[in-house]
Amino acid sequence: MSGVSVDSTAREQAAAVRTKEISARELLDLHLTRIAERNPELNAIVSLDEERAREGAAEADRALAAAGRGGTEVGALHGLPFAFKDTHAVAGWRTTYGSPLYAEHVPDTDELIVERVRRAGVVVIGKTNVPEFAAGSHTFNRVFGTTLNPVDPSRSAGGSSGGAACALATGMVPLADGSDMGGSLRNPASFCGVVGLRPSLGRVPEWPLYNQWETTSVGGPMARNVGDLALLLSVLAGPDPRAPQALGDPGATFAPPLAGSLAGLRVALSVDLGGAFEVDHEVAAVVESAGPVLTAAGASVTAAHPVLTEADDTFRTLRAWHLQAKLGGLLAAHPDGLKPSLADNIRLGEHLTGADVARAYTQRTALSERMREFFAPDGQGHDLLVLPVSQVPPFPADQEYPTQINGRPMATYLDWMRAAYLITVTGCPAISVPFGHTSDGLPVGLQLVAAHGRDRFLLEVAAALEAR
User: Fold this and answer.
1) Which of 203, 233, 254 corresponds to the end of one domain?
2) Containing domain of residue 431, as a range?
3) 205 and 276 fall within a common domain
4) Same domain, 65 and 153
5) Tens digit of pLDDT for each residue in 69-117?
């Protein structure tokens, strides 16, 4: 009897399949059992197709046997059950984008992220739930309903990768893919107690895109621990000729094992980036508690932060411009077909001028330069920025977004996400690592940010913090 379970690390599960300690079919059965136990309540996995999954697992076992006879290697994720985010097109598989307008949509081409994960040998089982067109950090839609928090099902799982984070936390899948514009990898990771990485711009290439030069949204990995996340990043990362802005480092650069240390790090810790946003008192306490932990591990911790004054206007302008460019035609054709908050943001984009967009990109350039100086390796800069992931703990699932923090009203459904989206427009890699809990046991993640391109360094630091 194999000692592998759905709660084993993804690396342990993949190794057990490769050594034939467990077959892909047996591993799939374990995950399908867990899905049957947890998914009816939590609603994380959608478009589940057990029959096709069993066919895929059988094929994975046949491929492993053939590879053994031929002396070839199988992919890094061979035999692992996998559910793709429902905003990522999977050829031959229902992909709804969380929209009733695409409720029966079946793409005929894999996205690049999907292509790479499939090539690594996964067994596709279905999709993970998302908010409509991935807009908003609470996962609900009119096609599949709401994904609930695995720790407290009365609460939100976050979003837009909420289905992925919930499925991971409960052992329904060992790894998950996601995407992040304003925190869609980081917020659900914090809410569900898993790890989510928004990589450096260009680290995980995407194709096809309606606009290859629009760079607020990136794809990235999620996992239950940093080592597993590194494994998935090693599959997702690397250049591709279809993605002209892709960074050149090969995916293998990020593969585990990780051997980082906190000793000697120059850490800037900030609860609110100098008053840039309101933070729930319990979340703030968890973030502040990181200071003594890092200091005890040998880091030099100071209360400091980069000046990101223009980041709010930059993000909101580019987000509205992006949504209008991508979805404006759909809204015009179906005025009542999109959720009101999304429709409102698309309409904001209709009123932007060329000067508005130019201002946003000019500001984004200034923010990038300021972060380069903040992380300057000249003895005066910092190695790491530490701040909250989410400004609130998981909120009630029957709310679209938190309407107040510490009694102070949130004017829009974006206000509570500033801790994540202000980092978005810097282009820097940012990871959410589980770090503590509120008094009623809700997960709170810590956001770690490093200089652009230092994704491997960020993974090593996150792993060292995880192992504290």
Assistant:
1) 254
2) 266-313+344-466
3) no
4) yes
5) 877 899 999 999 999 999 999 999 999 999 999 999 999 999 999 999 9
Q: Residue 332 domain-assigned? A: no
Residue 210 belongs to some domain of the structure: yes
Q: What is the pLDDT of residues 38-82, one digit of tens each?
A: 999 999 999 999 999 999 999 999 999 999 887 789 999 999 999
- Across-strand partners of 123? 81
Residue 243 sits in the same domain as residue 272:
no
3-state SS, one letter per residue, for the chain:
CCCCCCCCCHHHHHHHHHCCCCCHHHHHHHHHHHHHHHHHHHCCEECCCHHHHHHHHHHHHHHHHHHHHHCCCCCCCCCCEEEEECCCCCCCCCCCCCCHHHCCCCCCCCCHHHHHHHHCCCEEEEEECCCHHHCCCCCEECCCEECECCCCCCEECCCCCHHHHHHHHCCCCCCEEEEECCCCCHHHHHHHCCEEEECCCCCCCCCCCCCCCCCCCEEEEEECCHHHHHHHHHHHCCCCCCCCCCCCCCHHHHCCCCCCCCCCCEEEECCCCCCCCCCCHHHHHHHHHHHHHHHHCCCEEEECCCCCCCHHHHHHHHHHHHHHHHHHHHHHHCCCCCCHHHHHHHHHHHCCCHHHHHHHHHHHHHHHHHHHHHCCCCCCCCCEEEEECCCCCCCECCCCCCCEECCEECCCCCHHHHHHHHHHCCCCCEEEEEEEECCCCCEEEEEEECCCCCHHHHHHHHHHHHCC
Any domain includes 34: yes
Task: Examine the domain organization and report whether 197 and 94 are in the same domain.
Answer: yes
What's the structural domain count of the chain? 2
Helices 226-236 and 455-466, interaxial angle, to 10°? 160
The CATH number given to whatever domain includes residue 444 is 3.90.1300.10
Same-domain check for residues 309 and 444: yes
Q: Catalytic amino acids?
A: 85, 160, 184
1 lies in a domain? Answer: no
CB neighbour list of residue 194: distance below 8 Å, 6 or more residues apart: 165, 168, 169, 188, 222, 223, 224, 434
